[in-house]
Write a structure and sequence with these properties.
Elements: E1 2-15, E2 28-41, H1 52-60, E3 65-69, H2 74-79, E4 84-87, H3 93-110, E5 115-125, E6 128-132
Parallel strand pairs: 1-3, 3-4
Antiparallel strand pairs: 1-2, 2-5, 5-6
Helix pairs in contact: 1-3
Amino acid sequence: MSIRIYKEVYFEASHRLLHYEGKCFRLHGHQWRAELWVEGDIDADSQILVDYNMIKKVIDRYDHEVILNEEDPMVPCISNFQEVVTTKGDPTSELLSERIAREVEEECSKYGIAARVAKCRIWESTTCFAEWTP
């Protein structure tokens, strides 16, 4: 039986946009909101598609982290004090929506769960989000 589930997770993280002319070029933080719609066939024994906590654990990798473009000259400096999450390209809500969706799918695959992310929405503020769909 095919089904779709929904999970919403909040996380705090800072980022900056290296290739952007404007205030987002400066290191700053957000309370991000991730919304994921995951679909597939439920497990015959457990009657569960994906454990909601598994989705949360993937998103929690970003909680209280600094997220920077891997080319950002701040990476080596900040790395002297704490781990930095790096991205191929500027860590925009657009980039993070696809990246998080793919990470959730990889985690499902790792555990043999036949599920895919139908939609991933990443809110950078209360008024703007990016939405990735396959």
